[in-house]
Every structure is written in structure tokens, then in C-alpha cells.
Design brief:
Length: 351
């Protein structure tokens, strides 16, 4: 922690200006009230004020290294009393010695100077006390700022750890399903199995290339989601259809990587698996006031018994967008009338 005054040029100038005002005020009083010569007035004001100003900088160090203890303040108070006595003693002795040597021929002034030791010490003690209080305020403010920065760094680390955990729960689920499909295709249709392996390799390379909490453009993300759906289409053929409707304003909007894959996977698992008719998965994006609105919907047969899952996919996506957008994004889903819809509102400004 640097000295609050000498740490920057601005504070040095402010500190010097304050002592200049003090010395000017002292000089005016000495000249017009006590009728001392101008040379004596200027010398006394400059020497006493700027010497104390220099010694007052030293008050920072006991303040910095002897923090005030609320439960046992005796040690802190005693340390400041000793430090203050040393600063005041040096200041008074040096000031009086220099001025006595400089104006020994001014009898009236020397008499005044030697008789002013008590009130100089009292005023110096008050100034020293003010400096100590200012230093404590600055120290506490710096500690609060450092603590806030540390807490923010910890929150960022926790957020990143949570994102990593959530992402690690999603990827294996998709990978296992794809490998099972490839295994079944190797005997029945080797060419499609080979095509699926290539697509799967490209898709996994994308998911591993980026950090889990990295943002990419919606256009790039959906390009790889199309690869994902193409992988699944190898398995389901004409049973799986998909459509994308994306406004131009949406294409460059940043979204977390792999944020939509669990939603497409959920749609396939709960509709395509159980349906004998073709199922269309639709993705749409359009601006909506302060948000970018995305909708993923899919058809399902309400007469088919619902295959209950763990809900990990939907909950993980919700947690990821809350973490990634600092809880400014919202997500909700509905299932009625033979259509399941997931709506996500991404905030346009979230930093």
C-alpha cells in the first residue's frame, strides 16, 4: 500500500497547497497583528509550516503498520502518542533553533519565539491528530477497495468453476449417445457411421476449442448446432426436421458456447425418440426491446406417455446463462397443445 500523499503528483500538489495556505495565514497574522518585519514573517511561516508538513508525512507509517485495535486500543494509542511526541519534538526544536540562529538580532521576535513553544506544540498536536485521522480514513478506504476486488475475483473463480462443472455434465451425455448410435450404424450402414464420426469429430473439436464460459457470435454457434443436428439426422433420417429463422441483428450477438446444444438434445430425446411421424425443431431469434429473444420449439405427440428425464439439460442451461449474464438473462419453457417451447431472453448489455 503506497503513501496516500506521495503516491501521486495530484495529492502532493494538494498537500503542498494546503500548507501554503497555512503558512500564508500565519504570515498575515504575524505581520498585521504582531507587527513583525516581513523577512521574519516569511521565514517563520515557511520554516515552521513546511518543516511540519514534511514531518507530517511520517505520521503515515505508524498508521500503516500499527492498525487501530477496537478491542484493545491502548497499544495503538500509545504508539501514536510516542510517534507524535517525536515528530512534535523534532519540529519544535528544529524550528526554534533555525529561527534563533537566523534572527538573533531581533530581540522582540526571539522573545516571542521562545515564549511560543507551548502553543506551537498544542497546535502541532492538533494538526498531527488530523493527519492521523485522514491516514486512517484513507487506509480503511483502500482496504475496503482491495477487499471488494478480492471478493469480485473470488466470485469470478466460483462462477467459472460452476460453469466448468455444468459444461462437464452436458458433454458426456451427448458423447455417449452419439457413440452408441455410431456403434449401431457400423453394422447396418458403415458409410453413414463414417460420416457421423467425421461430423462428431468436427463438433467435439469446436466444443473443446473454446473455454466453457467464452462467448461467440450466434451465427458461429448455430453453424455448429447445425452440425449437431446433422449428426442426429444420420440416426433418425426423415423423422428429424429442423428450421432456423434468424434476423440479421441477431447474427453477431454474443452467446455462450454450446448453450443451445442441450436444448436441441432435449427436443430430440422427448419428441423424435417417441414419435412415429416427422418432428420439426424450430429455432428463431429476433430483437425484443432490451433483450435478444431466442425460441426453440418442437412438436410432440401428447398421446405418447412422457419419458421423464432428470431435467439436467434445462436446469444447466438456465444456470449457465444466469452465471454468464450475471442473472440478467431469463429462461422459461412451456409444453402444451403438442408443442414444447423454450424461450431465452439474452440482455443486450450485461457487462
Amino acid at each position: 500500500m503506497s503513501h496516500p500523499i506521495t503516491g501521486s503528483r495530484r495529492t502532493v500538489l494538494i498537500y503542498s497547497f494546503v500548507w501554503l495556505l497555512i503558512s500564508a495565514t500565519q504570515g498575515v497574522l504575524y505581520h498585521f497583528v504582531l507587527q513583525f518585519p516581513v523577512s521574519v514573517v516569511i521565514a517563520d511561516a515557511i520554516i515552521s509550516s513546511f518543516l511540519f508538513g514534511f514531518l507530517g508525512l511520517l505520521a503515515w507509517y505508524p498508521t500503516r503498520y500499527i492498525p487501530f485495535q477496537r478491542h484493545s486500543p491502548f497499544y495503538s494509542i500509545l504508539a501514536h502518542v510516542v510517534a507524535g511526541a517525536l515528530v512534535l519534538g523534532v519540529w519544535v526544536l528544529l524550528t526554534v533553533a533555525i529561527l534563533n540562529a537566523s534572527f538573533s538580532n531581533q530581540a522582540n521576535y526571539i522573545e516571542f519565539l521562545n515564549g511560543s513553544l507551548a502553543w506551537r506544540a498544542i497546535l502541532g498536536a492538533l494538526v498531527y491528530l488530523v493527519l492521523v485521522l485522514v491516514y486512517y480514513l484513507v487506509t480503511n478506504n483502500q482496504k475496503l477497495q482491495e477487499r471488494a476486488q478480492q471478493e469480485e475475483r473470488l466470485r469470478s473463480l466460483v462462477r467459472e468453476a460452476e460453469l466448468n462443472m455444468l459444461k462437464s455434465q452436458i458433454n458426456p451425455h451427448f458423447l455417449f449417445n452419439s457413440l452408441n448410435s455410431i456403434a449401431s450404424l457400423t453394422m447396418s450402414n458403415p458409410d453413414e457411421a463414417r460420416d457421423m464420426i467425421i461430423r462428431l469429430s468436427d463438433f467435439l473439436r469446436y466444443s473443446l476449442k473454446h473455454r466453457e464460459n467464452e462467448f461467440v457470435s450466434l451465427k458461429e454457434e448455430l453453424g455448429h448446432m447445425r452440425d449437431y443436428l446433422a449428426i442426429e439426422k444420420v440416426r433418425f433420417g426423415e423423422k428429424l426436421l429442423y428450421e432456423f429463422e434468424i434476423g440479421e441483428e441477431c447474427e453477431n450477438f454474443p452467446v455462450p458456447t454450446m448453450i443451445f446444444q442441450p436444448l436441441f438434445e432435449n427436443a430430440i430425446r422427448h419428441s423424435v425418440y417417441e414419435s412415429v411421424d416427422p418432428v420439426t425443431i424450430r429455432f428463431a431469434c429476433a430483437p425484443d426491446r432490451e433483450y435478444m429473444k431466442t425460441i426453440i420449439s418442437n412438436d410432440y405427440d401428447p398421446q405418447v406417455p412422457y419419458m421423464k428425464g432428470t431435467g439436467v439439460g434445462l436446469q444447466n442451461v438456465r444456470q449457465r446463462i444466469q452465471l454468464g449474464y450475471k442473472e440478467k438473462a431469463t429462461m422459461h419453457w412451456t409444453g402444451e397443445g403438442g408443442k414444447f417451447t423454450v424461450t431465452i431472453l439474452f440482455p443486450r448489455i450485461f457487462t
